[in-house]
Design goal:
This protein has nine helices and ten strands.
Length: 249
């Protein structure tokens, strides 16, 4: 019998492309209410792992589960519990946030009452009131990211998997997205991939670190820093790179 407190689970996940190993034997569990940072150098396998967890990519071996559902064989059931925001997530530039949310609400079979309530909630949560009727293609990158977040939250999922949600944003936009994630962390289980290491200390309590397709660290932020290294120094050490003059990462 599965543990209902485990909302994200990877069991021996591997993905091969011919002779190339994208990830190999990745295993971890994330329990209800946890906010976990997923770290690693570019090309380490973070996005591949996230795509397998969300059912967008099939593993070569192993099992990915969301809320106890096997995402290879029970993806629709698992997706009801999941909100996934990929890096540079696709949006329809000619649609407005209002029409986009209405489209996804209809696709998810929401009743008119539920649709109205959830749309009002995500518009307020993601602070989209000022751009509600504007074409998405004319919005700033920060607002487009908020629209993507609103779409992810529309069906009120238990689990959020966010791949570089602040990538390419300016400091003000980063602050706004970070504030939204902090608010969501009070009720959601979140796996967050990021290269902004300040976000790790500010928003998460646990780190998963992947390098060269393998899980190198799974533990608390406190344990990650206990050897006296800075977050950047520890990142580089696990990622197989050294800091030069204390400035290179």
């Amino acid at each position: 019998m599965s543990d209902s407190s485990i909302l994200i689970e990877a069991v021996g996940l591997s993905k091969y492309y011919g002779q190339f190993t994208a990830i190999e034997d990745i295993s971890f569990q994330i329990h209800r209410g946890e906010v976990v940072a997923f770290l690693g150098p570019n090309g380490a396998g973070k996005s591949t792992t996230m795509k397998i967890l969300t059912g967008y990519l099939a593993p070569s071996s192993g099992t990915a589960r969301i809320a106890g559902f096997d995402m290879n064989t029970e993806r629709i059931s698992g997706a009801r519990h999941l909100g996934y925001l990929p890096e540079n997530g696709p949006l329809y530039p000619d649609m407005t946030p209002k029409s986009l949310l209405e489209f996804f609400a209809s696709a998810r079979g929401m009743t008119p009452k539920c649709r109205k309530q959830r749309m009002e909630w995500v518009i307020e949560m993601c602070r989209l009131e000022s751009v509600y009727g504007k074409p998405i293609g004319k919005l700033s990158r920060g607002f487009r990211q908020r629209v993507g977040m609103a779409q992810v939250l529309l069906h009120d999922p238990d689990v959020l998997i966010l791949d570089e949600p602040t990538s390419g944003l300016d400091p003000i936009q980063i602050h706004e997205v970070r504030k939204t994630i902090r608010a969501l962390s009070e009720t959601k289980t979140i796996l967050l991939s990021t290269h902004i290491l300040q976000e790790v200390e500010a928003m998460t309590s646990r780190i998963l670190f992947i390098s060269e397709g393998r899980l190198q660290y799974d533990g608390s932020v406190t344990e990650f820093l206990k050897e006296g290294l800075t977050m950047e120094e520890h990142f580089c050490a696990l990622g197989g790179k050294e800091l030069r003059g204390g400035s290179e990462m």
